[in-house]
Structure formats: structure tokens, C-alpha cells
Amino acid sequence: MGLFISLEGIDGSGKSTQARRLADRLRACGRAPxxxxxxxxxxxxxxxxxxxVEGDPDRWSPETExxxxxxxxxxxxxxxxxxxxxxxxxxxxxxxxxxxxxxxxATRGDLRGLVDDIHARIIGIEPDLTLILDMxxxxxxxxxxxxxxxxxxxEEFGLSFQHKLHAGFRALAHEAPGxxxxxxANRSADAIADDIQAVVTQRLG
Length: 205
Ligand code: ADP
Ligand code: TYD
Description:
Layout: E1 4-9, H1 15-28, E2 34-37, H2 43-53, H3 62-86, E3 91-94, H4 97-104, H5 112-123, E4 129-134, H6 137-146, H7 159-175, E5 180-184, H8 189-204
Parallel strand pairs: 1-3, 1-4, 2-3, 4-5
Helix pairs in contact: 1-8, 2-3, 3-5, 4-5, 4-7
The structure holds adenosine-5'-diphosphate and thymidine-5'-diphosphate (TYD).
Adenosine-5'-diphosphate (ADP) binds near residues 9, 13, 144, 188 and 192.
């Protein structure tokens, strides 16, 4: 089986930049990583993504979001993640279940129990390694909104929401220290990529 790695963190923290760089570095070592993302990562899941990241912030309740993100994740798991791991390929995903634990489970009321129950029944696996990019919410929000991607539904919840997310990801890192590694993301992309490579190399033995 390949290694299953997720990158997590608030919007604009550099996840997709670092996911690409990690994939490049693994390729340079002769591995064949699959680089993917959530919500999305499979055709049906990408259709669901558009429902989630576009439109008004109050378009969905947190409960409805949990179900939509989980539907997208199940499709991603069935069609992309499990087949790749079974072929012995590493999988690098830009976000996975920790995003639901934090965005839906810990920011707009305490829905963590519901998130955990649904995860256990429908998804049932965790990454081997989760890299949590830890960065200043103000800088991250400015970066994220500067992209003007048209996918800013969550950024539009504002700065206090980003502060809750930041605290939520740090709490998760303490909850699952064997799986999660906090990476200081307030640095150059090169320095962050070096740290990530060191952690991954150690996991690969
Ligand atoms: P995320 O996937 O977490 O939203 P991105 O990788 O898309 O974050 O990065 C958000 C923006 O910040 C992009 O414009 C990217 O080029 C820039 N960026 C990423 N990493 C760094 C860094 N270490 N320092 C400065 N800018 C960065
Ligand atoms: P993403 O494309 O990773 O956004 P960004 O590049 O801004 O970090 O994810 C889209 C949005 O979906 C992002 O704001 C986080 C949110 N999200 C959740 O709320 N719950 C989830 O389970 C996932 C996977 C993402």
C-alpha cells in the first residue's frame, strides 16, 4: 500500500502549494504519488464541490454541509483514493476529514459528535500522516481572498471564523499526535517544503 497523506489548515495557508511541492519531491525519489483535493478529487465529487464553495455563506446549514462534504468524500474515496493506495501509489490530498471536524464540527455550534458518527459509518479511514499548516489567520485570509477564485464562500464568514478554524486545527493536532504534525507555515514556501520532506522521509522509513 502507498502512504496516505493529507494537508490541512485554514484557507490560504499554502496547502495546495505544498501538496504540489511534496508530489514533485516524491516523484524525484522515484515514487508515483496521486495528487488530489477535497471537496472534489473525482468527477462526481467535483460536481458536489461547486454546491459547497460557491454562493452565499448561509446557503447551507452546518448539518447539510456535513452530509454534502461526506457524500463528496465517499465518492473521492471509492474512485480515487482506495484504487490508488491499492496500486501501491502514495496519495496526497489537499484536505480530508479533519476539515469537516473543524469547519463543520467546531465553528458554528458543537457538531463534532455528529461529524465523528457519520465519518465512522461512511468513511472509516484516516490518513497515515496529516500535515497541518499552521499560520496567522489574518495573513491567510488576505492571501485567500486575493486569489478571487469565485470559491470564497467560507472565506466570507470573516476573520473571527478563521480564528476559530486556526484554534480548531491546533486542537486536533494535540488530539491525534501520532497522525498529525503541525508545520509552521509563516515562512517561505521553500522552508516549509523542506520541513515537510523531512517528516515524510521519516515516515517512509
Ligand atoms: P491553500 O491551498 O491553503 O488555500 P495556496 O497554496 O493556494 O493555499 O496559497 C495561497 C496563496 O498564497 C497563493 O497565492 C500562493 O501562491 C501564496 N503562498 C503559498 N505559500 C506561500 C508562502 N510560504 N509564502 C508566501 N506566499 C505563499
Ligand atoms: P479549498 O479548495 O481547499 O479552499 P482553500 O484553497 O481556500 O483552502 O476548500 C474549499 C472550502 O471548503 C474551504 O473554505 C474549506 C471548506 N471545507 C469544509 O468546510 N469542510 C470540509 O470537509 C472540506 C473538505 C472543505
